[in-house]
Amino acid sequence: MPSAPLRVAVVCSSNQNRSMEAHNILSKRGFSVRSFGTGTHVKLPGPAPDKPNVYDFKTTYDQMYNDLLRKDKELYTQNGILHMLDRNKRIKPRPERFQNCKDVFDLILTCEERVYDQVVEADLNSREQETCQPVHVINVDIQDNHEEATLGAFLICELCQCIQHTEDMENEIDELLQEFEEKSGRTFLHTVCFY
């Protein structure tokens, strides 16, 4: 591995399932990783599809856990939400919005096209360019359920490991993504923005 590990951000909508699963796996593999959501609120499944549990991004995972435990322990244990929140609170205290982060990353991975568009258009391209340092933004479409989040996290981890081992990320990344598309049967959106 090159001396400086890649600085990686993983972004989904609510910073709960997909980005946190990838955050968990990447941090265990030694990556410098942070995770974020781009939504205005954090949404978790509720008792019915039209009744989600909505929280502010300032709410801690622990507070969400206790709230759902109080509302319906059986439902939220059965659907895996309490288990997910338990994992999340061991990684960091609360969800974070990407729009509020001013850190610099080498690689930003998004988990759905809408989030990719928000990261690229609404945030990175609207910032004042200061250092002209490149950041690669790659979208890996991952369905928002526990199983797909796990599979997607391993794919993201494998991708990060391959990028980490390239001699020249700027010149090798397109070819690498093409190989990954063929191997995984998925298509990846990719663009370069500048800080």
UniProtKB/TrEMBL annotation:
- Where does this one sit in the cell? Nucleus
In Gene Ontology terms, what is a biological process of this protein? mRNA 3'-end processing
Reactions catalysed, as given in the entry: O-phospho-L-threonyl-[protein] + H2O = L-threonyl-[protein] + phosphate; O-phospho-L-seryl-[protein] + H2O = L-seryl-[protein] + phosphate
Q: Which GO terms describe its cellular component?
A: nucleus
Molecular function (GO) terms for this protein are: RNA polymerase II CTD heptapeptide repeat phosphatase activity
Q: Which UniProt keywords apply?
A: Hydrolase, mRNA processing, Nucleus, Protein phosphatase
EC numbers for this chain: 3.1.3.16
Q: Per its UniProt entry, which superkingdom is the organism in?
A: Eukaryota
Q: Which PANTHER family match?
A: RNA POLYMERASE II SUBUNIT A C-TERMINAL DOMAIN PHOSPHATASE (PTHR20383)
Query: Which purpose does this protein serve, as stated in its record?
Result: Protein phosphatase that catalyzes the dephosphorylation of the C-terminal domain of RNA polymerase II. Plays a role in RNA processing and termination.
State the similarity comment.
Answer: Belongs to the SSU72 phosphatase family.
Q: Please identify the protein, giving its name as recorded.
A: RNA polymerase II subunit A C-terminal domain phosphatase SSU72
Q: Which organism is it from?
A: Vidua chalybeata
What gene is behind this protein? Answer: Ssu72
